[in-house]
Amino acid sequence: MQDNLGKILKVVGIIFMGLTGAMNLLGGIGTVCAAFLTENFPSMMALWDYRWLYQSLMIISIFIGLGGIWVTICLTKGGENVYRNALILLVTGTVVGAVHYYASMDLRGSAAPANMKLYINIFTLLLFLALKIPGISERVNFDRSADDTVGKMAGCLTAIMIGMLVISTSLWVGKSHVFEGVNWTHVLKEFLAGSGLASIGIGVGTMAAPAVKAVFVKRATQAG
């Protein structure tokens, strides 16, 4: 059974899985300053002897992020083991995020924005565990092939939300990436803006495509 509540919960789960994947990917890319460019950022010098750790965290986080995006796509389609794969990535992301969080707190007294990455991994992990509660799991079954409409809607909304997350990166990273009045994320502003707008465009375009197609078909029929 998959009623309207089940469909809504499935869409919410897919959206948060996508956002979690994107956050891990952004977190991995953002760790490059601590992992490989430590000497260029005075506030990161406390990490000098632990660059090996941050290099490892960076690479693992990027792979977790890419895996999260892949799992999100699989969740929109449904199928065997997609829920299990999502849980594996969420548990791994939570563990890696916790290591990053506590290492940064211990070494430099601040974990931002790694704390945001940890929080969203934990939240999404708890959300997916909750979706297995008896009474809910019957309504939300990711192992079953997803309804085409629900899958497409979830994918479109996820793409839009990820785009908004990426574009707003310079805002939510907070003071952790500002030194002498300069926001370090501006180094990647073209990439962030371009990829964010592309993600939003894909989501909006895919969502609007059936309506646009229907208009053209109607006009073509009337003209004929």
Describe the 3D structure.
The structure is a single chain. By secondary structure, this protein is mainly alpha-helical. The chain has one domain (4-223). Helices cover 72% and strands 2% of the residues. It has eight helices and two strands. The longest helix is centred in the last third of the chain and has 35 residues, at 189-223. The chain starts with a helix and ends with a helix. The model has no long low-confidence stretch (mean pLDDT 81).
Count the DSSP helices: 8
Low-pLDDT parts are none
Report the end-to-end length measured between terminal Cα atoms: 44 Å
What's the arrangement of strands in the largest beta sheet?
Answer: 1-2
Order of helices and strands: HHHHHHHEEH
Q: Which range best describes the helical content: under 10%, 10-25%, 25-40%, 40-55%, 55-70% or over 70%?
A: over 70%
Work out the strand percent: under 5%
**Any idea what the radius of gyration is?**
20 Å
Structural class of the secondary structure composition?
mainly alpha
Shape: flat
Major β-sheet annotation: 2 strands, antiparallel
Average pLDDT over all residues: 81
Number of strands: 2
**Tally of individual domains:** 1
